[in-house]
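To illustrate the input format used throughout this study, we show a single complete record. The first block contains the structure-token representation of the backbone; no residue identities are included at this stage. The design step must infer an amino acid for every position from geometry alone.
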């Protein structure tokens, strides 16, 4: 991704009450000062500690640009999404006398942007945040749209806030160092955007699965910008997941996530997010088929596109009871009622309210190994 001459960065504007831009290209961190805007004196850089070159590099550029910079390194991946890590960041901001005119910059994958967004949302009840995502998954999904959060013992993302960033800088050179399995994990969210809203994404992946399975593939830029555009269109009209804007609103972005989050929890976060939601999407495709909503061919398309990318499509049969318990804390649940995002057709997400235990068990049987 980093060799040769580079095309100009793509700019996707996320609408809503406070619109912001997502830039996708090379050397985009040059735009940081612009996105931070006037009046910012201090910048807290929250970076994944396993990426010290990235975090330190961004901190250095900000220092050179005249900001007082506080670098806060946080644990790698999901370990960052805890109340303890958030509290440590609040302590650091307090020591630095960080005020409402100061700003946070996140550098890392989706776990880091979720944590940093949450710290920004809660410090002084909200300070500006700019995300610099370094994984595919964070570029196409986590850093965009303002969902922030941490996990609790009861489950994934149970504490959080909607706090849109002032901007998102997706520097494609970061993808050069991204391990292959992390790329594939991000592709699960890209493909999700294909199933719920933009089937051209599926066509692109299916036309060259080997190319789509690597960051250097021919359609990388288009796949990234299309997935971001899907997310931007959804969150612009339904930031807080209230169902605004017709259709089912923002809940559609949770396609595959009810079972997916349960798998992540049951696996103690040793499965990648994209791997878990890939199984979750095959499960809800089977559920939709069991309910007579979609054809066997569309279910098969889920399996074939995920398999072609090397994503899992099955989960162990003996965990159904614990998965069902974990799914009860899903944010889409209402009291005892479980609700699932399913498809009525390709690109037509709807909510399946209270599927019967028989339907759920049959759908799980079809994805279990
Ligand atoms: N807020 C949202 O809307 C939203 C959307 C989707 C996912 N998420 C959350 O995002 C998280 C998953 O994000 P993720 O897949 O980016 O995982 P991650 O943040 O755990 O990062 C995955 C791994 O990649 C490493 N890494 C990051 N960038 C790298 C780079 N450029 N080179 C080498 N290694 C790099 C990280 O250190 C980590 O080990 C989950 O917690 C999920 O719940 C949030
Ligand atoms: O942005 C959204 O809305 C999503 O649902 C995007 C998901 O890909 C993402 O994993 C999100 O963190 C899930 O949120 P949650 O509300 O189910 O915790
Ligand atoms: Zn997700």
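Output of the design step:
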């Amino acid at each position: 991704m980093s060799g040769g001459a580079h095309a100009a960065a793509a700019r996707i504007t996320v609408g809503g009450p406070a619109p912001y831009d997502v830039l996708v290209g090379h050397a985009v961190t040059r735009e940081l000062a612009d996105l931070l805007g006037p009046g910012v004196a201090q910048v807290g850089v929250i970076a994944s500690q396993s990426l010290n070159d990235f975090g330190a590099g961004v901190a250095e550029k900000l220092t050179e640009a005249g900001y007082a910079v506080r670098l806060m390194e946080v644990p790698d991946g999901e370990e960052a999404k805890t109340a303890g890590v958030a509290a440590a960041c609040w302590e650091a901001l307090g020591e630095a006398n960080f005020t409402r005119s100061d700003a946070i910059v996140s550098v890392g994958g989706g776990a880091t942007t979720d944590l940093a967004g949450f710290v920004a949302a809660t410090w002084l009840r909200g300070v500006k945040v700019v995300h610099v995502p370094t994984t595919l998954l964070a570029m196409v999904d986590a850093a965009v749209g303002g969902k922030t959060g941490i996990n609790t013992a009861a489950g994934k993302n149970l504490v959080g806030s909607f706090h849109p960033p002032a901007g998102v800088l997706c520097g494609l050179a970061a993808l050069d160092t991204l391990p292959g399995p992390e790329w594939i994990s991000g592709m699960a969210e890209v493909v999700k955007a294909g199933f719920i809203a933009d089937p051209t994404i599926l066509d692109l992946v299916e036309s060259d699965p080997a190319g789509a399975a690597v960051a250097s593939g021919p359609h990388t830029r288009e796949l990234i910008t299309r997935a971001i555009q899907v997310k931007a269109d959804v969150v612009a009209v339904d930031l807080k997941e209230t169902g605004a804007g017709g259709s089912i609103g923002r809940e559609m972005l949770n396609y595959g996530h009810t079972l997916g989050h349960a798998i992540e929890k049951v696996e103690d976060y040793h499965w990648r997010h994209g791997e878990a939601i890939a199984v979750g999407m095959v499960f809800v495709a089977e559920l939709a088929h069991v309910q007579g909503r979609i054809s066997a061919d569309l279910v098969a398309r889920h399996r074939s596109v995920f398999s072609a990318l090397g994503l899992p499509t099955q989960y162990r049969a003996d965990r159904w009871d614990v998965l069902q318990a974990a799914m009860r804390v899903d944010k889409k649940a209402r009291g005892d009622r479980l609700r699932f995002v399913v498809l009525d057709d390709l690109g037509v997400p709807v909510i399946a309210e209270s599927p019967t235990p028989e339907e759920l068990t049959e759908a799980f049987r079809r994805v279990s190994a």
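Structural context for interpreting the output: Residues 141, 145, 147, 157, 189, 250, 253-254, 257, 331 surround LNCXM5UN (ligand 2) (CB under 6 Å). The first strand starts at residue 10 and ends at 14.
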